[in-house]
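A quick aside before the break. I want you to see a complete sequence-to-structure record at least once, exactly as it would be stored in a machine-readable document. Don't worry about memorizing anything.
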Amino acid sequence: MEEWIAMPEKMNKSAAARKARRAKLRRRRKIRRVLWRCTLSLLTVIVLLLAALLSAGHSAFLGPSRTVADLLTVTMLETSALKFVPRIYYSEPEIEAIVARNQLGEVQEEADTSLIVIAQPTPEAPAPEVTPAPNAADLITSEPTVPPLYEEDGISIFDVQGGTYNGYMMIVQDPSRVSVGVCRDGFNSKPGLLLHEIAQRYDAVAAINGGAFEDTNGQGNGGTPTGLVVSEGKLLHKANTSSIHDITVGFNQDDILVFGRFSTAEAKEQGLRDALAFGPVLVYNGEPAPVKGASSGLNPRTAIGQRADGAVLMLVIDGRQANSIGASYADLIKIMLDYGAVNAVNLDGGSSSMLYYNGEYLNNGVTLTGSRRLPTAFIVR
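That is the input. The structure line, written in tokens, reads:
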């Protein structure tokens, strides 16, 4: 009798279990349908966005305005992540033609050191007034009329703004305070240092990023420079004339900024105390380098220059941001000439462009860490 009584209970439990399993399966199927619909919707949105981007790109790169197309092309070619985009629309010969009509002309001359006259104070007498060379009479300009953001101990920092960029100009009155700092005395496969770490290594008050380094596909660790590196009179890395960044820029023993395509032997003949490699030359002997078209597009920039009185100009421009797209070489040339540069050279840009001063970064870098790892920097002590 007990078995007969237990059977309906077992049947009820079995039916309940089957009902629960069916409900669970229905829930799973419902969840899968929802996930599939969400995935399908997402894929549709992605496809539509890609189609819109391709359509917009087609209009921008292949539209009626060659100026816009050239500007976009040369801008993206300077990036690590987006240089493939122009190649969607152009062949390599077409890209080469675009680059050829949008670039900074190569400067054949070297720096004329006679145009820089640095007053040397003595303990017995104050510093005399600077008397520039006769052919440099128009090269010294007054300080900017706008007040500096920072000014102390011979360093002034000014806000720099243009139609497509924001940045900073740092003026160091005494050029002997500016030198090349490195991530370590012997370069190897180890990662470089962040800009503030290089500054702290030398107990420097300020620094800007410096020269070129191995950076295949934008994945370099900043530990190996390309081109000449001289720090405090010591040759730390030989010149590389096959590099695209083979303009040596730095200071000789007289604290005068010089530049040129120097071999290692020629660099020794120049008596360089601190130097690194990048380029191109922006201003030479008071003259602007020739600019063709959009030059290199709008990107973050760093540059160094020197006035006729010896003061060093250190410029950093933000880029790839909503409030600061970036600057062209033509923009850098204008800024440097406005601040009285006799000579000026472009340094590494992009995500490397940073200005460090008194324990903090002043500009907004592209990377989350504020600075990329670097092998070299120009520092101020």
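Two observations worth writing down. The longest helix spans residues 2-62. The longest strand covers residues 155-161. We'll return to this after the break.
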